TrEMBL record:
Pfam families: DyP_N (PF21105). NCBIfam families: Dyp_perox_fam (TIGR01413). Signal peptide: none annotated. GO terms for cellular component: cytosol. This is Dyp-type peroxidase. Residues 290-309 are annotated as: Disordered. It comes from Corallococcus llansteffanensis.
């Protein structure tokens, strides 16, 4: 059984809808203050227990970078037991992740990707009132505590449309995790083994993956890849307008690139036209598979949703070994409907990718499925929306009598920064607080 009272709520719980969120980065300048902060946060963060309580959708979570663990004085023999991708950090892994050109770390928003980032606090809630209550717990933990410096903050909020900045319904897919008590959104998908997302439990291979030592530090923790992704909304609209033959064709091309209509209705269930009622129905809008569409006449194999989660397709090994919990929150102002010129505002998504295996989950999906096409037989073709395209990108989808081919895809999503973090269990926070040099 999952020890839900020791697992942070932010690990297992899906994002509420609507939502507001705040991300705060901290630097530990004094080791004793950092340890005291861990002690205080141990009683301030939200546990995953009681999934049906009225406050279950409001959470405060804490995660630490490798540099943060060093700043706390975690012994070297413990540091060496963390996943090697985590020890390297996201910025040094940029090439493998497709963070090149405009997305390369030298262009990231300071202090993201630097050794100054030690602690990531995340507050997430359905409304501003509850969010302020969660942030108040964070402020109390920091109160009169010298030696801790807040160095960055990002506020996020659901857009008035209820969609992400490109205009698609968001937050649809969430896997079921054995023992969590939280249902998944796809009835065709069997609950995944807890060890895919929480350290210390059997995973889909049947074994228990290595975890940080001692056990009290690693058990009930997980890894999180935080990403700030800027979205070029005007460029996406311009591309559709310049490529499509009509406004209706614009909607179709957008749906083919995503794998869903903007309403959230999946092409797998309504390939010829949008179905807003279906898109709005959380009991049906993720109830599909791809086995009956091997060629991709309904959902193109190269579309975003089919790349990110091929479901029942037999590609690139066992799909269940690469499942993650994805949690995105929008930041920045909305670009008004119909506007085709960039207004210069920074807008996009703050993403958290949660899993116990950074290498075979986040990094594999990013490098092999999002920025690669070999598993689809498409050569070096990248994800048409989220891929690291450079103006020469190509997106093809099956169509009778001949496939349709879109050329000259630019980069619509630019990485503004990111961090690999470890989200410890509550007992681990107390262990960190009690460290002695």
């Amino acid at each position: 059984m999952l020890e839900l009272d020791d697992i942070q709520s932010g690990v297992l719980r899906p994002r509420p809808s609507p939502y507001v969120a705040t991300y705060i980065l901290l630097r530990i300048d004094d080791r004793s203050a950092g340890r005291e902060l861990m002690r205080r946060l141990g009683s301030a963060v939200t546990a995953a227990a009681h999934p049906n309580s009225p406050t279950s959708n409001c959470s405060l979570s804490v995660a630490l970078t490798y540099h943060g663990l060093e700043a706390l004085g975690v012994p070297r023999d413990s540091l060496d037991t963390f996943a090697w991708e985590f020890r390297q950090g996201m910025a040094p892994r940029a090439k493998a992740l497709g963070d090149d050109g405009e997305s390369s770390p030298e262009h990231w928003e300071p202090p993201l990707g630097t050794s100054d980032v030690h602690v990531v606090l995340t507050a997430l809630s359905p409304d501003q009132v509850q969010l302020e209550a969660a942030l108040e717990r964070a402020r109390n933990a920091l109160s009169e505590l010298g030696g801790i410096t807040a160095i960055w903050r990002q506020d996020c909020h659901a857009l008035s449309t209820g969609k992400e900045p490109f205009g698609f319904k968001d937050g649809i897919s969430h896997p079921a995790v054995e023992g969590s008590g939280i249902p998944g959104s796809n009835p065709h998908e069997e609950p995944l083994k807890a060890g895919e997302f929480v350290l210390g439990y059997p995973d889909e291979t049947g074994g228990v993956s290595p975890m940080p030592q001692p056990d009290v530090l690693g058990r009930n923790g997980t890894y999180v890849a935080f990403r700030k992704l800027h979205q070029r909304v005007a460029a996406f609209r311009q591309y559709l307008k310049n490529t499509a033959s009509s406004p209706e064709d614009e909607g179709l091309l957008a749906a083919k690139m995503m794998g869903r209509w903007r309403s959230g209705a999946p092409l797998a269930l309504c390939p010829r036209h949008d179905a807003p009622d279906l898109g709005a129905d959380s009991s049906r809008n993720n109830d599909f598979h791809f086995a009956d569409d091997p060629t991709g006449y309904k959902t193109p194999p190269a579309s975003h949703v089919r790349r990110a989660n091929p479901r029942d397709a037999s590609v690139a090994g066992v799909v269940r070994l690469h499942r993650m919990i994805r949690r995105g929150t929008a930041y920045g102002p909305e670009l008004p409907e119909g506007v085709l010129e960039d207004d210069g505002a920074d807008r996009g998504l703050m993403f958290a990718f949660i899993g116990a295996h950074l290498g075979r989950q986040f990094e594999f999906v990013q490098s092999e499925w999002v920025n690669g096409g070999d598993f689809l037989g498409l050569g070096d073709a990248k994800d048409p929306l989220a891929g690291a395209n450079d103006g020469t990108g190509v997106f093809s989808f099956p169509k009778r009598p001949i496939p349709r081919r879109l050329q000259g895809l630019p980069r619509f999503v630019v990485t503004r920064g990111g961090e690999y973090c470890f989200m410890p269990g509550l007992r681990a926070l107390r262990w960190l607080a009690e460290l002695r040099t």
